[in-house]
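Please review this pair:
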Amino acid sequence: MYHFLFVPLTLGLSIIIAIMETVYVMTGRPIWRQMTKFWGSLFGINFVLGVATGITMEFQFGMNWSYYSHYVGDIFGAPLAIEGLMAFFLEATFVGLFFFGWDKLSRVGHLVVTWLVAVGSNFSALWILIANGWMQNPVGSQFNPMTMRMEMTSFFDVMFNEVAQAKFVHTVSAGYVTAAVFVLGVSAWYLLKDRHVELARRSIAVAASFGLASALSVVVLGDESGYSVTHSQKMKLAAIEAMWDTEPAPAAFTAFGFPDQEARETHYAIHIPFAMGLIGTRSLTQQIPGINELEQQAEERIRSGILAYDALMTLRSEKEAAPEAVKATFERHSADLGFALLLKRYIDDPREASEEQIVKAAYDTVPRVWPLFWAFRIMVGLGFAFIGVMAYFFYRASFCGMRFPRAALWLAVVTIPAPWIAAELGWFVAEYGRQPWTVDGVLPTALSVSHLSIGEVAFTLAGFVLFYSVLFIIEMGLMLKYIRKGPYFDVSETTAWMEERAARNPRSGTAAQPAE
């Protein structure tokens, strides 16, 4: 989640600066080149911090999650390797040409470089989210009892996993909204201070149009993510909706309420009839199972998984000499092996688990409901708010002569942190809602960790918090410094062009008031 503070702005700004430079190449107007360089400098600061925090995450797999890396590394490592070799190298190579190639490349050549940076940034997100999508919906793989590891059976299935694809388009759209709100807010601040007016007005026009399309797509694609969760992570969906009991189809959507996990009910709930059934199933006849029913199913799968675990131990000891009946038993119940591993929290050998421990393990499959319930609703509420903000500024930029009330400009400034809040809440819902699994239905989180003492974990965590805090202070200091400094590239060329333009057509100059 800390790493993702930097990712969305990188994803969105890379596209926005590519759009701005495209306008520069098409029109030859130096102000668009100045805009590209200015927003590009902020992109560069953020890009460096994103790389620093991202590389650290790669090391964590080996340091803190060693059994996870051993158990699923053959699958999870493939998209990460492709991301590094294909996308990150592309992005990192051409970002240097973007900053230092302005006077060494032709206009079109530099524009190609800028778009390659944008493509590389988004390709990085694609492969990372394919890896994460597999953790949510582990398709294209199977467990090998001889090696005691998950192995890939179909790279095509892993790559085109419906959860991964829905997560990718939803996540990058959220990044586009983040960048659009950032550009809009900074530009609004310039107008309030009556500084860099022409750059700010044009930046608002780009941000509002790009942001409106992105905000609309976030809502549409978020709905698609919800639909995919209905198939792959039923417990997550039930927890998000605080749906304790299975309702007759089509289920209602709980717009408001206070989930009570102990009582297994939602107090003061306000329901929207039929909405959840339509969102989750695209039908009026298909049921969405509730938490209580899913917990009972988890208990049944734990008992089935114990049979798989017993057969696995026989296969491990007797290998090829194992009876065919044992192999057949493992094949029948292997899909539930992960549920038996949930018992490892309570007992070393799942076969010796008591009824009470089986019930506890089944209850563990229910994540804590109220944080998911409210995180999801705040995220969705912010998503619709972004649509309203972007639609308003798009209207004012397109049909009101770039005149914006001061109250609206202040709203744009204070809205800057909101997309980061929404994005972090989205990741919280995705990852916390998956618990107790690292790989859903396959590998429990409790088994994934390295054998580290509490002291070792606390010491390294404190070190990361300290180091990242320093980086964050540096990031904020540099961003604020360069925002206050404003555009300092091509100042004389742009000023001369603006003066010549104003002399030819006085009504097109900066005489118009930027804010009402």
Observations:
- Residues 1-235+387-451+486-497 form one domain.
- The CA atoms of residues 187 and 200 lie 4 Å apart.
- The radius of gyration is 26 Å.
